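REQUEST FORM: STRUCTURE PREDICTION
Request ID: SP-0412
Submitted by: Lab K.M.
Chain count: 1
Length (residues): 273
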Amino acid sequence: MQDTATERRAAQPRPEQGGKMIVIQDLHKWFGQYEVLRGIDLEVTPGEVLVIIGPSGSGKTTLLRCINFLEEYQQGRIYIDGKLMGYREQGGRLVKLPDREVSKMRADVAMVFQLFNLFPHMTALENVALGPMKVRGLSKQAAYARAREVLERVGLADKVEAYPSKLSGGQQQRVGIARALAMEPKIILFDEVTSALDPELVGEVLAVMKQLAQSHGVTMLVVTHEMLFAREVADRIVFMDGGKIVEQGTPEAVFTSPHSERLRAFLKRFFER
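STATUS: Completed
RESULT:
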């Protein structure tokens, strides 16, 4: 049986000849003296589902946080839909944009975190509607209508009035995904979104992400250790180690014919048990 990503590519070819949604050029990021990202070059096409894998400490989360400018980068360039993210160029140097402009750009690059980060005093509906009202400027009525729509999309139509404390971890994470969708972003970044969940709750969150991947809409970058999910859903897989991209390719190429010894050793932990 064809996997999900293969079926999607056959049904709707990727827009390779069109513009790039994300362009990363020679990206470097330091924390003090420690260089976390060491010259990342990456391009992502509109609607592509890119899965990033690699050992802990390889820079995967930092890369996502630089893409939506939760972390400032010190060297290189990140372009989102043709616009330099977080900075303007002045005399060949990067000058940080005012916070208001950064927030406006960041609204197009939603992020779903490992921990749910829901406001405990707000219902699921209120949590999801907050961003569209505060950032996108929607009226309460319009924001609530959008929130109901996306909560239904992630299978939580019956939980709109529930507070986070009354939701399971999987349900809370699905609210987090709905919150990202409600912003109608160009890109959604998923950072190990199942790592904090009990094993029996992982499947329900992955199912929602698979549904999003099949929708041919938003560009998705997914950091995960769920290798079977990556193999089924990704258009392309990037393997990072030591702050660099070591290898990348289709799921078929990465999982069946890895070129580097580092990738072979990494995959062995998951597939030779």
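NOTES: The radius of gyration is 19 Å.
Reviewed by: T.R.
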